[in-house]
Design brief:
This protein is an alpha/beta fold and 257 residues long. Helix content is 34%, strand content 19%. The chain is globular, with a radius of gyration of 24 Å.
């Protein structure tokens, strides 16, 4: 279902965003490279004071690579959901209005098609707006808060939960590692506010020239390998054929090789 969202939804006019929380990041020296001259590495203290921790809330749009990041000191529901509502409402304002209006039954069938095969799923609203955005999100209890789900459904947003131990399905995990590495590696932030400032500044730098993300999960790799196995390589170059070349025998009969 999530693979289908990554590969098909945008072509159907449904935006796909990923959400995740990273951290906690402590006020400690972080190992990593620096711009100091060769042979003169930066020295890090062996003693430090833990002044608290910071976390990073992240929204990623894989198609464009754009991220929306906020540094926080906690990820309680009021913090996370308040930020998500603000950011998602702003994202919806940038999306084009649906060009085709479905009737109520067809619209509900479209919503349900993105929940096919689930054994446990929240009850949808009686009257549903057009589906405009799919949100890939972790399978945490706080993400299934009834008030939060009702808000999502009212705004045409359908959360898609990654299964337990399936966080690799969430592309936001990858961009968070990149941002953390660029912001903190090789540095010693001595205040939580500094960590937050560096994370958010790094996200702004990323958005100046973002890298789009494409899906390359395990299923995609298996299918690619299967396609390669079906190719018939030809000698003399890297040319291939999808069907064996017929070779004519001495008696005139064709034989595939």
């Amino acid at each position: 279902m999530i693979e289908r969202a990554y590969t098909v939804a945008e072509s159907m006019g449904i935006a796909v965003w990923c959400e995740d929380e990273a951290g906690p990041y402590q006020t400690v020296p972080y190992p990593g490279a620096s711009w100091h001259p060769v042979g003169q590495p930066i020295g890090q203290p062996h003693e430090y004071f833990q002044e608290g921790t910071a976390k990073m809330l992240t929204l990623l749009h894989p198609k464009t690579g754009q991220v929306r990041v906020r540094g926080v000191t906690n990820t309680r529901n009021e913090t996370l959901h308040g930020w998500l509502k603000t950011e998602l409402a702003a994202i919806l304002d940038t999306l084009p209005e649906p060009t085709t209006r479905l009737n109520a039954d067809s619209n509900r069938a479209l919503w349900e098609s993105w929940r096919s095969g689930l054994t446990v799923k929240p009850t949808l609203l009686t009257e549903l707006p057009p589906l405009r955005l799919l949100l890939v999100i972790d399978n945490l209890v706080g993400h299934k808060n009834p008030a939060w789900l009702v808000w999502c459904f009212q705004h045409g947003i359908l959360p898609l939960y990654t299964p337990v131990a399936g966080s690799w399905l969430n592309m936001a995990e990858s961009v968070q590692r990149i941002l953390k590495r660029r912001a903190l590696d090789g540095h010693y932030p001595q205040a939580v506010a500094t960590i937050i400032d560096w994370l958010e500044a790094t996200a702004r730098g990323w958005n100046a020239c973002p890298t789009p993300f494409i899906w390359g999960g395990k299923r995609s790799q298996r299918r690619r390998s299967a396609r390669q196995r079906r190719l018939h390589r030809l000698g003399g170059s890297s040319a291939c054929t999808r069907h064996p070349v017929a070779r004519r025998l001495n008696n005139g009969a064709a034989h595939a090789t």
